Amino acid sequence: MIDWPIDPARTALINVDLQNIFVEGFDISATDGPDVAQRLNKLSRVCRDQGMMVIHTINELRADGSNRGIASEVVTAYLQSTGTNRRGGIDAGTDGAKLHASLEVEPTDVLLTKPRYGSFTGTDLDLILRTNGIEAVIIGGIATNVCCDTTAREANQRDYKVFFLSDGTGNHGMQGLSAEDIKASTLAAIRLAFGQVLTVDETIAKIEEGGRGVIAAE
């Protein structure tokens, strides 16, 4: 398995979709959403202290439905078939689409609204990263197997190094599979073909080691 160092000057943290609907209180919320948010708050503080870019994505569709698309049709049909209540979903202006109150967002952070699962699709994320000399991304958030996984795959295909957080991502169970089973499958695929899987604490240790290396070199 790959084992990359982390260069704080060339790495950004992407906190994916820590919104009310995904964090807690909704039928499709992650089973451990609040805990995931707190772990990412901890990591975000370390990243900011190291001068790293922190990005928060918001999965949101236009209130008028003009950019809803096929993905929304698939999700809506599935939720209806399972009797799942999404209570406004991710339409702009709804409570579900808002960032969770526990998420720490600082003025230096980047807020990125995205209309699809992947953080690169329909956004200027690639432009933001390349403008700032970013070559690697740390990915956490919700859901492990949907928006986080899609973002990791998109980043990999654009030749960014991907660090994927095992305990900094969350999801819920579905179709007879537990949340743990789904996460394990996703992490196995990431390890095989798309990047390095780390815990939040392992990532912090790599960031701090990389920061010390820069100071020593100076």
Question: Keyphrases for this structure?
Answer:
six-stranded parallel β-sheet, alpha/beta, about 40% helix, about 220 residues, Rossmann fold, 7 helices, globular
Could you explain the architecture of this structure?
It is a single chain. By secondary structure, this protein is of the alpha/beta class. It has a single domain, classed as Isochorismatase-like (Rossmann fold, 3-Layer(aba) Sandwich). 41% of the residues lie in helices and 17% in strands. Helix 5 links the parallel strand 4 and strand 5.
How is this fold's topology laid out?
Elements: E1 11-16, H1 20-23, H2 33-49, E2 53-59, H3 69-82, E3 110-114, H4 125-131, E4 136-142, H5 144-157, E5 161-170, H6 179-193, E6 196-198, H7 200-217
Parallel strand pairs: 1-2, 1-4, 2-3, 4-5, 5-6
Helix pairs in contact: 2-7, 5-6
Write a brief structural summary.
The chain has helices spanning about 20-25, 35-50, 70-80, 125-130, 145-155, 180-195, 200-215, and strands spanning about 10-15, 55-60, 110-115, 135-140, 160-170, 195-200. By secondary structure, the protein is an alpha/beta fold.
Shape: globular
Number of separate helices: 7
Number of domains: 1
**Count of DSSP E strands?**
6
Calculate Rg over CA atoms: 17 Å
Q: What is the CA-CA span between the terminal residues?
A: 31 Å
What is the helix fraction of residues, given as a range?
A: 40-55%
Q: How do the strands of the widest beta sheet line up side by side?
A: 3-2-1-4-5-6
Order of helices and strands: EHHEHEHEHEHEH
Oligomer: single chain
Low-confidence regions: none
What top-tier CATH class fits best?
Alpha Beta
Which fold name fills CATH's third level, the topology? Rossmann fold
Overall mean pLDDT stands at 94
The CATH fourth-level homologous superfamily: Isochorismatase-like
Q: Which strand-content bin applies to the residues?
A: 15-25%
The chain-level structural class is alpha/beta
CATH architecture: 3-Layer(aba) Sandwich
